[in-house]
Design goal:
Elements lengths: L4 E5 L3 H12 L4 E5 L2 H11 L3 E5 L7 H8 L7 E5 L4 H9 L4 E4 L4 H16 L6 E4 L2 E4 L4 E4 L2 E3 L3 H12 L4 E3 H8 L8 H15 L9 E4 L3 E4 L1
Helix pairs in contact: 2-3, 6-8
Length: 225
């Protein structure tokens, strides 16, 4: 039985009720807030395991709430919105959102995203080895194996793969990846990133033309699985 507590921050009562029914039927505990300020207060007092945060709130935008929460709250935050523009999604992810779902969404998809986000979050920070399907990434020795065979990666390719693996299942924006791997001055060099992702795919994917591990999120970035 799940022990996870989920905070819903959404101004629509019917949406909160529907989410509560779906979550509680899957053994999650639920608390609710109808405004951004109420949500921040509940998050501070209850420390939920995950927050479902709507973009459109009556007192302040979900983006503003996200920024405030990320000053101290480290658990997953999944954004919910009727807006599906790339700019809105990228902004939320760059502000620290764990994931993003556009309304209307299927309950099964939401539950899968929640399970994935919580699972990643409870993985110890001090993990020395990461297993991703047929890949094994040793973060101490920097050794990469595919089907138990050693792979030869350049330093940049290793750093890129390690960043992906540590954020398994999470959408990483182009700007975030470029900043983390190459620095602030490279945040607009998306073509530069595509080249390195392409070479990395050729080494780790069984079929790099139909990648399994590094999934392209069109116009936004990449998701590693």
């Amino acid at each position: 039985m799940n022990k996870w507590l989920i905070l819903i921050i959404d101004d629509e009562p019917q949406i909160r009720k529907l989410l509560q029914i779906n979550l509680e039927s899957n053994d999650y505990k639920v608390i609710q807030a109808a405004t951004g300020n109420e949500g921040i207060s509940l998050c501070a007092s209850h420390t939920p395991d995950l927050v479902l945060l709507d973009i459109g709130l009556p007192d302040k935008s979900g983006q503003e709430v996200l920024i405030e929460l990320r000053e101290w709250y480290q658990n997953p935050i999944i954004m919910l919105s009727v807006l599906d523009g790339e700019k809105e999604i990228i902004t939320a992810l760059d502000h620290g959102a764990t994931d993003y779902l556009t309304k209307p969404f299927r309950a099964g998809e939401l539950l899968a995203r929640i399970r994935s986000a919580i699972k990643r979050n409870i993985t110890t920070v001090n993990t020395k080895s990461i297993i991703c399907g047929d890949l094994e990434i040793d973060l101490v020795s920097r050794i990469i194996k595919k089907n138990n065979e050693l792979l030869k990666l350049t330093s940049t390719e290793y750093n890129l793969l390690a960043l992906f693996a540590k954020n398994e299942g999470k959408v990483l924006t182009h700007q975030y990846i470029l900043r983390e791997i190459w620095g602030i001055g490279y945040q607009t060099e998306t073509q530069y990133l595509r080249v390195f992702v392409g070479t990395l795919r050729k080494k780790i994917e069984s079929d790099y033309t139909n990648p399994f591990h590094i999934i392209t999120e069109s116009g936004v970035g990449y998701r590693f699985q």
